Amino acid sequence: MLQPNFNTQAYNKHGQNLCSSYRRWTDKHLISKHSEPDKLIIELYEAPFAIVSHGIEDDPIFNFGNRVALELFELDWDHFIQLPSRYSIETKNRKQREELMRRVSNDGHMINYSGVRISSTGKRFKIEVATIWNIIDENDHYHGQAAMFKNWSAII
Question: What does CATH list as the number for 9-155?
């Protein structure tokens, strides 16, 4: 799988916002605290755990998924960043997801979330101990939401 071209100011800023927002809500570092600001997005893409984010559209669309997430969702970069994030969950569970996203919007973050997700080919997998957070920049402008999880298992 080819790595997207992250050599843009917008991606560099997104990486910084993902990391600083995560730190703001959890008081933990998403990746090494010694990373260079213009290298964060690449380190996030290469991280050994899943990271995804979506924007602020009426029907939010994924705007980042790292290598692990792309493999789990069985999509390449170009298709993933066109996918409404609600399609990462089965239709029957989308109301629950909407409520979860509302709670995160109001509270800023949620830790220890568990739930079932679905890949582009219909494979189901359970994520556990996930953190979901609002992406906020240094001026407190809202840019969407992100999720990180290190634990997942296939559902057969």
Answer: 3.30.450.20
